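Ticket #4471: complex job returned nothing on first submit. Input attached below:
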Amino acid sequence: MDRLLRNPIVGTAFTVTIGLCLIALLAPILSPKDPLKMDFKAQLTPPNWSYPLGADSFGRDVLSRLIHGARISLGISLSSVLLSVAIGVPLGCVAGFVGGLADEVLMNAADGLLSLPPLVIAVALVGTMGPSVRNVVFALTVVYAPRFARLSRATVLALRGQDFVQAIWALGARGPRILARHIVPNTVAPLLVLATVTFGQALIAESGLSFLGLGAQPPTPTWGSMLSESQGFIQQAPWLPIFPGLAIMVAVLAFNILGDAVRDAIDPKLRGR
Amino acid sequence: MHQQRRQGRGYIRWGGMIPLLLAAVAMLAGGAWAGEPPTRGGTLRIGIYSDPNTINCMESAGDPVQQNIITGIFDSLVVVDYKDSSIHPGLATSWKQVDDTTWLVTLRKGVQFHKGYGEMTAEDAAFTMNYIVQNKTNAYTYVTFVTKAEAVDRYTVKYTLKAPFAPFLVTSLFYGSGMVVSKKAFEERGFKAFNRDPIGTGPFEFVEWSPASQIILKRFDKYWDTGRPYLDRLHYRVVPEAFVRMNMLKTGEIDMLTNPDFKDLKSLGEDPRFVVDSLPGHNFDFIAFNFKRKPFDNKKVRQAIAWAIDRKEIVDNVYYGYAAITDNPITPGMLAHTDRRYYPDTADVAKAKQLMVEAGYPNGFTTTYITSPKEQLKRLQVIVAAQLQKIGVTVQLQSLDAGTFSSRFWNTKDFDMATRDLNIVSPDPDSTLYWFLHTNTTGSAGYDNPEVDRLLDTARGLRDPAKRPPLYQKVLDFAYEDVPYIYIDHVKMAVVYTKQVKDFKLLPNERKYLHSVWLGKP
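Support reply: We reran it on our side without changes. The output follows.
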């Protein structure tokens, strides 16, 4: 890990990630203004000292909205990734370990979901259930959980045949214990990589849903909805779409680099280089 | 500033008016255009924001895009001048009220249907009305009080009403229900096919409709008003985003755009290539409460919210001044219109807070507020939410797609608070008050006041127009006190078109008559 961070790109990505998490956690303290406070006199103010990133069409401070938006956008992405892990991994492990009918059913279901474009499923789900933060998290979980199920199943299958597992079998340990104590811990590394990469994708998906009006409802700021609200003002106030757009780009890039770096770090083939 | 052509001038020259009157108005108005004679030919390309639901007049109700297009395909029996609500001939040349509930209408002779469907007769007119009444199509809103229509002879239709209804001509024979479809074509095609491929008598006939792309109409060569229309074709281009429509106008891809974003009007008006035309519309934005749900069953809560609304802030920041503040739904020019105001233009937060205390909600409450996808209304609701926060009411907005919103708003009444805009289709106070304040009407969200019902029922039956306004004023008094709805503003109608487009007359509603419009030299 230490060696990884010495790579300047990875180091930057890591710093950015930590920074974003801090911003999200400390949003109420960090944001200079109330993100919902409208001041119609300040409508579409270009960036200046009192509005560092300008003001939007309601005269709300873009910087404050961006900071609070980080909270919602990162929060939704994080919750949906954690939930996907919490649901996908146990199902995948059981499918891989038990095999047979359970494996058939679970993996066919997962394949079915994986065969559809993620955003389409998410839009369909949120569209039918109605837009809200909870439903977005649910939809993204439905979209991403199969990936974790697939990956953990593959890892479990590979591990199941290995000598150390066979040895424990021979010693008389029971299935659940082997799974919990000896197999699952070994799936953590690949899952961590997938989780980091998925986090970036979830962020994009969340922004997309918010952009379509299917995410957190106005006036709650999210990066995607800030983009969407600014689209009518692109010519008059270009800073409105630029800053949330940049925020999404930087965050996704940071998570992707970090994901790559983690994979490099734990891939035995690359180790020692 | 932007150029504005107000209604003051030659504004009644459209619809199916008798050619003589047309000529007279043209002469009056002629001076303004330096006597340039209209020329035939050309295609007018119009940017619209969505597909219409259908283009069948029987399905006409509030859909603005539909209003826009069906006025080309169909003519109405009478034509109303919005300036003074006077009634002029359209497909009908004369009419007579036989008794309280019977009307005889004489049709124009020699009016042809599109695509060789023959002459329009009383059979067609009676069929159209009866189909709407029997099948309760969307246009039924205009004719709920009609029992039936009969063809007395080839050119005379007899309408029988259930009860006396004073604004019958204005409400029933001008809008969708007052247009005439070809019975033969309708029976051949069936309702569904006719919705997308209609046959009328209007100045333009239907050519094709590519959903989400464009609708094409072409000149009807056998139009009864000889010489018109001047344009060869109409291309309605479906472009949902206002700023894209604006850019298409700037790059010359369209000649006219409807429903502009009000914030763009200033810069468009400064551009010498364009004409920006606007006038106060026959419409209103309003907030509706669900009377069946707490806390909106409590009158004090509704009053508190009414006092907390800052209409000026809304009009300035949603419509950039392109709206007239109001607290009632009777627009200028309409019978019983008044300048009397009960609620101020700005909020009275102290009074609102006091009412919240009296209502038993000193600390406020949390509620939901459904929004339709219309961008301006979303802005309006975000501002309303911020205004209500000041009296402790936390409003959670829920964006819905248009279909879901409609069904929850009109049919299932599944909302706490809702906002929508309404285009008043009939310039009579009955249309804006009855359908919302009377019990068991489509618009009603549970308001039930027998006295209001009685006043509304009486007022619509009075044959003397002068006796009606006092009754409507009494209805308004109840509406102010009971707050079934909060009326906010009348939004201006606005269109932007190139200077090449001549003789376009903007109306206070979404109907856009193009039969007198022509294209000048570029």
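The first helix of chain A runs from residue 2 to 6. Closing as resolved unless it happens again.
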